[in-house]
Amino acid sequence: MIQRIINLPFETNDVILTDNEGVELSVFRPRNVPRRLRQKYDPNKNFQIWLKEGNEHFKPNHLRLIIDLDLRVRSRPDLQRKLAQAFDDIFYGEDPDIVVERFQDDKF
């Protein structure tokens, strides 16, 4: 997955996933980094995650992601450790595509 993002040309959008309800997850690589981040950010490492649900196309913020994760853990408390381990594994360099396969049979 990381190679797919790294190889994505600037100002290009790539649909990564479309679920069975038609919701799209995509990645966009902007050429310019927001002004408030320019001193701290390498443009080559900058990308944005977008969701498209129906006609609405938006960038989910951190709060929305935390709420989603909280709802998943509440609906399946038995997977709390497995989810936490998955985040750790991705943070420490494992391929997200491989980590996500661990959840292939789990329903939330």
Mean pLDDT rating = 88
- Helix run count: 4
What proportion of the residues form beta strands (DSSP E)? 15-25%
Radius of gyration, rounded? 16 Å
Structural class: alpha+beta
pLDDT < 50 runs, ≥5 residues? none
- Order of H and E elements: HEEEEHHH
The end-to-end distance, rounded to whole angstroms, is: 23 Å
Strand order of the largest sheet: 1-2-3-4
Number of strands: 4
Principal-axes shape call: globular
Oligomer: single chain
The largest sheet is: 4 strands, antiparallel
Helix proportion: 25-40%
Number of domains: 2
Structure description:
- The chain has 108 residues and is of the alpha+beta class.
- It has two domains: 1-60, no CATH class; 61-108, no CATH class.
- 33% of the residues lie in helices and 20% in strands.
- The protein is built from four helices and four strands, in the order H-E-E-E-E-H-H-H.
- It has helices spanning 2-6, 62-75, 80-91, 96-100; strands spanning 12-18, 24-29, 48-53, 56-58.
- It has a four-stranded antiparallel β-sheet with strand order 1-2-3-4, with no helix packed on it.
- The longest helix is centred in the middle third of the chain and has 14 residues, at 62-75.
- The protein is globular and about 40 Å long.
